[in-house]
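User: Predict the complex.
Assistant: Input components as received:
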Amino acid sequence: MNKELEHSFVELLEEHQNIVHKVCRLYTNNQDAHNDLFQEITIQLWKAYPKFRGDSKFSTWMYRVGLNTAITLYRKSKRIINTYDIESFQFKIKAEEYDDTEEQQLKLLYQAVHQLNDIEKALVFLYLEDKDYREISETLGISEVNARVKMNRVKTKLKTILNP
Amino acid sequence: MDELELLKKDWKKDDTLKYPKLSYNEIYTMILKKSSSIVKWIFIISILEFVFWTFIAFAFKGSKSLKEFEKFDSDFVIIPLTIAGYIVLAYFFYLFYRNYRNISVTDNAKVLMENILKTRRTVRQYVAFNLVYLVIATFAGIYIQFDQNPAVINRAEMASANGEAFMFYAKLFLMTSAVLLIIIGILLLFYWLIYGILLKRLNRNYKELRKLEV
């Protein structure tokens, strides 16, 4: 692959890296796993980049590759011990941002999302990213109606997890 | 407030604070590393399977027992079996390669999963073919022995002279079947372990997506 291609890719990814971080945030629960998944998504993006024609936005294209890697291609690295320390990992920054109740509520919400299965997480992710049902259905390969139905079920499931 | 709306509000807030900002060089180093995706593993394992069965076929062809066997008039069985073996190998390898090339990370999640499973299915069918082939070749071999090997014919005749023909054939059939079953059993166990581990998550997620379409 030529240098120019490498350069344009790395620049684009540097600019849009938060999309990858966000995927990792939903699909992993510690910093090591986060980094590992980030690495794999980066490789997959890079491998697919020569075929990226620019007919969709780079960010839209990243959503698809990122989610596909997280849901289907990624194998957890053996060196990663599966600890459930999302609390320390994801909430350390927010210490003084919110009042206690909202912070507590968010903490529980993120924990609840982590309990969803891979497909449900993908729906939540796309929803949080303001994607419409057409894009959700196209990314996952299900019909728009089913995406809507499933999204409602996920909302109910989250409610049940939060208020058992 | 809806739970997800609250989450969305937080999700959209100050991204810059939440995540580490990787530099150009850090990302550049990442693209030089090797992938460890399941597709890569499936590719490696599938190639090994093709190599394994081809190796078995060659090892068998060079073996002493087959040389012995060639003394008999067995071309009518061996030649068609060998040709069938090669044609089927070429056919499955072509299918496998075509399916493998079709795997694209930019497809939608369902199509991507289907393509990966299709690639696996090709190799699985090839292995199934080999197992059937093994059974047919074994029984064809036994048939030729009984037809042409004087020592075997002699033993069979002795057994039937003693009125033990049924026992003789039953024993032979049971022992051959047992050996074949053990070999097949070990292979299937091995298989079940490797792919059970490798494809567990993929199968689960694929099922989840399929469930939505019913």
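The two ends of chain B are 32 Å apart (CA to CA).
Let me know if you want any component modeled separately.
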